[in-house]
Structure formats: structure tokens, C-alpha cells
Amino acid sequence: MKSGCEGKEKNRMRSRELPIIGGTPPADGGVRPSKTSRWRAAALITLNVLMALHILQWWLMGTTVSPIEPSEAMYTIQQGALNAGFIFFSLAILATLIFGRFVCGWGCHVVALQDLCGWLLKKMGIKPVPFRSRLLIYVPLIAAIYMFIWPTVVRYFSKPPEEPLIPQFTNHLLTTDFWATFPPVLVAIPFLFICGFVTVYFLGQKGFCTYGCPYGGFFAVADKVAPGKIRVTDACNQCGHCTATCTSNVKVHAEVKRYGMVVDPGCMKCMDCVSVCPNEALYFGFGKPSVSVKKSVRANYSLTWNEEIAGVIVFVGSLFAVWNVYQLVPMLMALGISIVTTFLVLKAWRLVTRDDVTFHRFALRSSGSFKIAGWIFLAFAVGWAGLVAHSGVVRYFESRAARAFEAIAIPDELALADANPGQWLGASDLQYATAGKRSFDSASGLSLFDNKEAISKRAWIEYLLGNNERALELLAEAAEKQSGSGGAISRYYRGAILNRMGRHEEALREMDAVFSERPDLSAAREEKGVALWKLGRTVEAVSIWSELLEMNPALPFTASFLSGAATADGRTEDASRFESVAAPYIPNDARFHWVLGLRLQEMGMGQLAEKHFGQAVRRNPAFMIRRKRSP
Q1: What was the pLDDT predicted at 20?
Q2: Any idea what the Cα angle at residue 568 is, between residues 626 and 592, rounded to 5°?
Q3: Rounded to an integer, what distance in angstroms lies between the CA atom of residue 312 and that of residue 306?
Q4: 151 bridge partner residues
Q5: Strand runs labelled E in 250-306
Q6: Mean pLDDT, residues 561-571 taken together
Q7: N or C: which end of the chain has fewer CB within 10 A?
Q8: 241: left (phi over 0), alpha (psi -120 to 50) or beta
Q9: Which residues does residue 370 pair with via DSSP β-bridges, in sequence order?
């Protein structure tokens, strides 16, 4: 057994700094400061200021250029929506094909955040140590393929033969809803914290770029064929200053010695290595690309092969656990959380299986003895992994609930035909609704945060199962918590259910609230007319329906209501005219006629209702049984 003195001496030996040989060092003997870093910091600060001004301009004027964000290119590829993000991303890749991966180093707000976090950690005496993995390095490229290429592959095999592979482009260079494709601010803040400070602290200064950024996956590939590289002259004497100052975790001195240039695609052309070279041996220049050489510089990986495989398993499990949990966590944030989880789990495993483990300048375990820092690290790792596992359980129930909800086949019009939708549920629909309720209840009971998008789905399942009051409560909650269009849609459904339950005053208030956010929602106008009609305000109801039909004649329910109203007033010609307007838009479907008959019957328009009941029975005699049971 080693003595305590021997253990302390071993730790002191580990903490010694290796000397940097050769060159002309500054007066204090260390690596001289990079002059380029100041220019790059100025460029990144300017970038963030311009981003803030972009948001401010949209906030003040209501219209602005669409987000200049690479992720926006997804909507161009999938939907043909040509936007500023697609143009920027395309130009950035083209520039990388020539000059190498400089856009990341000089024009990325996440790199700016990571550099800031790295600078703050160094001020606290902590130098971020790079985490090096053989397998996880491919995560950004796989994520990029999933985001930008996989949708086109799916479209190729699933689209009808007559549709083009690439959707027709539409102009989306300007937008009035700048934040529509971004996560809420309450999600964006922890996202920036995790993908900035947390990844830098655990994975190194460019930790998120290395293991989480899908755009970097494409930039890294483009960099391999770019002629623009950091190159070297014969003045290099392998002093190592370049490697010591590189924040992209590149072994600059080893690569320029072996290849005459930097071939690592992680090089972001920050130019710090060029600036600090005491012999001015490094420069940016053009020549053969890195793809033309066979890489043979050995990397000191952080993991054994067994740990690599375990790390992939942990990473994939973590990704599926947190991605879109609560329908809040976006993909990029999930990637950042997952790679940090992988690091923590593997480091914690070493901590409990090895006698000596360090992290930064802290000894976590020495000579088999846990240190205070070790217990703190282990507690943090267990807590972090526990939260991820908890998210995975919630995500499991959310996924089951969402699948059950999507499998319910009953159309909304049929379910809203009267206040008893259960009569229309087939055996499979009832099974899916029951399973969906169980899963939604389980997810809600375990959740740490509200899944705002799931509340309205829960409400619909409760309504289908006959729990109308509970459905109304959930829809009111959804309308309050969901912003914009989502809240308006929840209010519409709540008003429609209130109408079927005979609570027309409440339904009218809901529809008025809908118009404040979605004045274009024709179904809400139709339902408002229903509420007014049932309240005896028939003139107002007819006025609303007439307005609506002028705006859109393809509304068979609205035209039929007007026909029934005209019949009630004895205006037979108008009644026939409105019937003719509705006829082309009524499908040749027994169930649709039956639903329309129920709605007309509810309105007291019995004569026209009987016509549609008869149409339903002629198309499907099975409806005769229902007709006999109807009041």
C-alpha cells in the first residue's frame, strides 16, 4: 500500500506544467498573447450586436428579414420556403469549400458564447481540457444528415410520382413572425447556458462545436477539400506555442510538421496560432487540400474502446430521453445535454472503478480514497443523469400518448355533432382513447414542467370519453398557456363543446375571444352564429353566416344553416339557393350527411335535417337504426 506522502507527491508530479521548447518566448517565458484574438472578439461582438438589432427592428416595425440562421434551411429543403437562413448557410458552405472553416471561428454566436465562457473559466484559474472521442466525433455529421438530407430521402420514397422531389420555391425572405421557429425564451436561456458554459467546462472550449453542432458537420466535410489552410515554412522549430494557444483543440505543431499544413477539420481558422508563432513560421495560404493526404498524427483519446462503445449507448439513450421532452427541448439543446451526460456518466464510472481520477485541477480520487471534490462530482453526475433518466420516462409516456392520439380516426366534425361523441367511437378508437388518457395522465403526474402542447390533446380525449367538464377545464388551461394560434384553436374547441352542451352564452364569449387572436378562423365565425341563433338573436346569426359565405362559399355547413334559416322565415327561394350553394361541397358520404342532419336538427331546422338523414340512409342503410333511435 502506498503511503499518503507518496500519493501527494504523485499528485504534485501530475500538476507540473510541461516546458515549451524553442522559439523566442516573451519576457515572462510563456506563450505571447494573440493579437488576432482581439480582432476576432470584435467580429463576434459585432455579430451579436447585429443580431440584437435585427430582433429590435422586428419588434419595433413588425416585419423584418427572416432569421439568418442555418437551421432555417430545413424549411427551404422540406417546404420550398426560400429564406435568409438558407441563403446564408449556402454561402457559408461555398466559402468553406475555398477558404476552409473560418465562418465558425469568425461568424458564429455560439462560438462567441463558448469563447466567452472559456475566457471566464481561465480567469477563475480553470483551463478547459478537451474531451477526445473516436466515435462521438461523428455526431455533428449524423445530425446534419438527419436535418438536411434525410427529409429529402424520405420524400423521394413517399411522394406521389407526379410531385417534384424539390418543392416549388416560395419567397420567405421577409417575415412578420420572427420568433416562430425558435424555442421560447425560457428554453433559449438554459440552451445557451448548456451549449455554452456547461459544454466548455466539461468538454473543452469548442465542446459543442466538436460534438453537438450539425452545421459544423457539413463545414468539417467542406474543410477537407478546401485549398485554404494554415500552412508552415521552414522556420518552424516545433516550439508548440501554436498548439498551446489553439482553442479548437488541434495539435497544430504535430500536423504542420507531418503535412506542412493543418488538416484537422476542427480548425476554425481563428489565426491565433499564426499570431503567437515566435518565428512567424505559420501563415494562411492556398495549396493542396487535406483530403489529399492520409492522416497519421496520433491523437490522445480520452476513452478506451470499451468506454467509446458505452459512451455511444449512453449518448443515444440520453438523446432520445430529452429530445422534445415536454415538447420544449429542441434538437440542438438535446445534443448538448446528451454529450455532457455521456461525459459525466463515463467519468463517474471511472471514479468508482479506478484508484486515481482527476478533473481539471481537482483530485477526485487518490490512491483509492475519495476526495471532497470527488463526492461533489459524483453527486452532480448522479443528479444530472437522474434528471435525464426522469425525462426519458416522461418522454416515453408522452410518446405513447401522442401515438394513441394520432391513431384515433374519428373526424372532428363527427365528434362535435352533439354532446355525446362516445356513440361514434368504434372499438379501436375507444381503445386508443383509453390508452392515450392513461399515458397522458402518467406523463402529467411525473412531469416537472407543463407540456403546453399536450393539454389540448388531453382535453380532446377526455371529451371523446364523455368527460365533458374535464375537457372544458383542460381547454381553458390550454387557451391560457398556449400563445397565438394555439390558444385560439383551444378556445374554438371549447366554444364548440359549450354550444353542444347548450351553454351558448359561454360559447359566445369564447368565440369573441378567438377573434381577438384569429379573426380569420371561419369555423369560429360559424360557431358564433350557432350560439347567436340558439340565443334567439337570429338576425345577427344570419348576418355572420352571410358574411362568412361571401368570403368563402366552400362551407357546406354555413350554407345549410342559411338555407334552414330562410326556410324558417318562409323564404323558399333563398332556401333553395343556399341548398344549391352547399351541394357541390357536400361529399357523397353517408356519415357527412348524418352529421349535417344532426347539426341542423340541433338548430331546430328539422325539415332540412330530415333531407340529410334520408340521404345518409340511402347511402348506408345501417344509419336507419340510428334514425329510429334519434329523438
Answers
A1: 43
A2: 35
A3: 10
A4: none
A5: 282-286
A6: 91
A7: C
A8: alpha
A9: 365
Contact between 283 and 271 under an 8 Å Cβ cutoff? The reply is no
The string of pLDDT tens digits covering residues 259-295 is 999 999 999 999 999 999 999 999 999 999 999 888 7
Contacting residues for 273 by C-beta, under 8 A, at least 6 apart: 230, 241, 242, 243, 245, 246, 252, 262, 282
Provide the sign of the torsion angle of the four alpha carbons 150, 152, 155, 161, taken in this order: negative
Q: Which residue has the cell 361571401?
A: 550
> Could you tell me how far CA 462 lies from the centroid of its own chain?
28
- Grid cell for residue 546: 352571410
Question: Is the alpha carbon torsion for 544, 548, 550, 551 positive or negative?
Answer: positive
User: Please, where are the H alpha helices in 62-138?
Assistant: 73-79, 84-99, 102-107, 109-123
Per the structure block, which three cell numbers stand in for 356? 486515481
Query: What residue type is 243 in one-letter code?
Result: T
**Which residue type occupies 311?**
G
How confident is the model over 11-36, as pLDDT tens digits?
443 444 444 444 445 544 578 889 99
Q: Which residue, chain included where needed, has cell 348576418?
A: 543
Radius of gyration of the chain (CA): 32
Distance CA 131, CA 203 (A): 5
pTM reported for the whole predicted model: 0.85
Nine-digit cell string for 631: 329523438
Give the number of other CB atoms < 10 A from CB of residue 175. 20
**pLDDT beyond 70 at 631:** no
Contact 351, 176 (CB under 8 A): no
Quote the cell numbers at residue 458: 388531453
Quick one: cell of 223?
A: 474543410
- The H or E element spanning position 258 is helix 252-259
Q: Which of these, 573, 577, 570, 568, lies nearest to 549 by C-alpha position?
A: 577
CA 269, distance to chain mean position in Å, is: 29
- Grouping H, G, I as helix, E, B as strand and the rest as coil, residue 175 is strand
On the CB side of 163, how many CA atoms lie within 13 Å of its CA?
13
User: Is 176 buried (19+), middle (13-18) or exposed (0-12) by CB count in 10 A?
Assistant: exposed
Measured CA to CA, the distance from residue 32 to residue 26 in angstroms comes to 6
Q: What is the pLDDT of residue 19?
A: 43
| 302-311, 467-476, 481-490, range with the lowest pLDDT | 481-490
Following CA atoms 116, 119, 124, 129 in sequence, which dihedral angle do they give, to the nearest 10 degrees? 110
Please name the residue that has the C-alpha cell 472503478: 353
